[in-house]
Amino acid sequence: MSETKTFEIDFGKVYSERMRLNVGPQHPSTHGVLRLEVELEGEVVTEIVPHIGYLHRCFEKHAENVTYPQVIPYIDRMDYISSMNNEFPYVLGMEKLLGIEVPEKVQYIRVICAELNRIANHQIAIATFGLDSGAFTPFLYYFRDREMIITLFEKLSGGRLLYNYFWIGGLMHDVHPTFAEDCLEIVKQVRKTNDEALDLLMYNKIFVERTANIGILPADVAINYGCSGPVLRGSGVPYDLRKVEPYSIYDKFDFDVVVGKGEMGTLGDCWDRNIVRVREIYESCKIIEQAIEQMPKEPCDVRQAVPKRIKPPVGEFYCRAENPKGELGFYIISDGSPKPTRVRARATSFVNLSVLPEISKGYMIADLIMILGSLDIVLGEIDR
Predict the structure, then answer these.
(1) Is the pLDDT of residue 13 over 90?
(2) Which of 104, 189, 326, 354 could form a disulfide with 228 if both were Cys (CB 3.0 to 4.6 A apart)?
(3) E strands within 114-242?
(4) What's the structural domain count of the chain?
């Protein structure tokens, strides 16, 4: 017979052995194929190491093997939630490099599409963040409204997620006859749903307790890590490229830069980062209404400035814009041929994710899910 072993436990002794736990890469709360190697003492996070590289997007190497216009569809596939916004800095940079002046109407259409896509991005960010905290109903409301925006983009480009709509020197197509009316109807519905979400989600007692004073990101830490977008503005830093370094025609619009104020807890917590996105939706609605009002009404050939062959001069340049998640930039080296020698993307989600270990230590593992959700990452951009 086998010998029975007995163990004696000293209940007065404090056991400090720590456990390492993998969260992801197949886990709904990591919002993609992200693996978090978490060290826990009990349920408290003592260390966290994000592991990336599971998606194999290979955007930069693809871009170096196609012509400059052919890069745009690959740009769409980085942050696939904000494809219109992704295309913006690239086409602006190429037009500046080539000395191309696009028609005024094209500039207005681009801004409207970018702000609609900003709304659609924030709707997903807020809705899924609500799901992370256990709130399901706001997800349905926001996705109902987002469907209106996606349907509009489908009318413009034929695509529902990946558009290739902004071209170097113009647009794929002119807008449809009811474009202005459709945009104003979307704005009206978006404002109504946002008002409901403030009561239903943002000021809900349970949601506030899950997000306030959690994942506090001080302004100096956010700046030192290179954070941008709502992650940075949630810490009270009023930095928005549309204001501090206006591109396209953003200097023609009246809108505010939304920042966190520590209303429900400490400045720079999860709640602040989320309320910035909610209030930015209102600001995007204001920009869209102004752009619709100011946009030239006469027909326009949106392809009139599109060059037949693109061979930029030898050199290098960097172009950037304010994406829904923060600053997106492209560093491009040209050797004078129709294909870029080097394309380097300054991916917002990649930079913002780097601050996660800094702001997660000392919190419960349940809080870690909320902290990660508040950063609004997308793995297509991280694994570019």
Answers:
(1) no
(2) 326
(3) 166-167, 170-171
(4) 1
